[in-house]
Amino acid sequence: MRKNNLMILVVIGVTTVMTSCKNGTAAKQNVNSDTASKKSTATEISLRKNVLTAEEQKAFTPDSVLQNLKAGNKRFVMNDLTKRDHSAMVRNAYKAQYPKAVVISCLDSRVPVEDVFDKGIGDLFVGRVAGNFVNEDLLGSLEYGCKVSGAKLIVVLGHRSCGAIKAAIDNVKLGNITAMLAKIEPAVVKSQDFKGEKTSKNDDFVEYVTKNNVINTIETIRSKSPILKEMEDKGEIKIVGAFYDLKTGEVIFL
Length: 254
Description:
Radius of gyration: 29 Å
Shape: globular
CATH architecture of the largest domain: 3-Layer(aba) Sandwich
Distance between the termini: 98 Å
Order of helices and strands: HHHHEHEHEHHHHHEE
Structural class: alpha/beta
Largest sheet: 5 strands, mixed
Strand order of the largest sheet: 2-1-3-4-5
Number of domains: 2
């Protein structure tokens, strides 16, 4: 009889422990599930999904856009880029676009323009050509971006160690590259007052020519586009130059 009672007690004890373990496991699973759900919700909330609207674009001034790009570059340098839901932004942007700025950049793959300024879909117009100069096609694109589509700022963005600048310094002759480099050559000529070795191996000289090329491009925009010149004179847009440092990710406005 005692043995039977003992067996009953053992069975009851084991059953109680197993039930407790199951309940504990279930509780942990519920907690983990709730935590994961909260994290997922928090992530979704923190993702940017909206694109610029006409009202937001209209509210910008050239100076506020410039400050906005500077702030974005600081986030890029600090590796603190805005988290975006690109799929949602694609869906939200397909009907219209209201970018705040136009950037004329070099072709160089190491200059990811939107990332450099922490911008996403619908934020910027970007025109790219090796050596970041302008011709009729790019001038027309700039006029479209500002006069037609309402962008408030034009940024001509040169960068460190630019291959096109080095090729222009070396007077490279190769296919269509020859004609392209002729657009950059005036900056090389303008830079002959540089004190030091005037070769493509001298990084300081290359940087000097690059910055002069940016200045030349801005002057070309003003002289070749009466539309943009008038907009700038009226304060509707601003045209600025900048230099991107490949080593640090910093954009230095000239």
